[in-house]
Amino acid sequence: MIRRALLVGALSAGAALGAAAPPLPLASEAWIPAAPPGARMHAGYLLVRNPAPVAQRLVAVGSDAHARVELHETVVRDGAMTMEQRRSLALPARGELRFAPGGLHLMLLEPTRELAPGARVVLRLRFADGRTLSVTAEVRDARTTAPHHHGS
Questions:
Q1: pLDDT tens sequence across 25-79
Q2: Rounded Cα distance, 75 and 8, in Å
Q3: Cα separation values, 15 from 21, 53, 82, 128, 131, Å
Q4: DSSP letters of 43-70?
Q5: Angle CA(119)–CA(121)–CA(126) in degrees, nearest 5?
Q6: Structural domains in the chain plus CATH codes
Q7: How far apart (Å, rounded) are the C-alpha atoms in residues 112 and 53?
Q8: Does residue 94 sit in helix, strand or coil?
Q9: pLDDT at 8
């Protein structure tokens, strides 16, 4: 009986240690430039940091104000700037992904409500391990907003 209890205890402790997930990434600096009324898409920008010593993978993003969200990257191909959809993005160990104008960005499609400056949108980031992270993005007047960088 004691031997069985020790075995069960050892298996439980081992499972708990093996199941420890790396720290969840951190999201900040989230914002969306305001678009004209009736616009069918918005861009979204943010910073995602990975404090973990292992790489993680961002596989999807959802929005409480859009029917669909896609991961996009602006690239120059044959001298022309174009946007390419990404199925997922690697988040390096102790690294970051910066979503900013002219680079990685979110394409927020089919808004479900009007998004005037000052509105808030909840973005839900989903990682390959199934965990999710929510961040609130503020809609900002695009004419007066410069991209924000570290420390803003």
A1: 999 999 999 999 889 999 999 999 999 999 999 999 999 999 999 999 999 888 8
A2: 54
A3: 12, 20, 47, 21, 19
A4: EEEEEEE--SSS-EEEEEEEETTEEEEE
A5: 170
A6: 22-140 (2.60.40.1890)
A7: 38
A8: coil
A9: 43
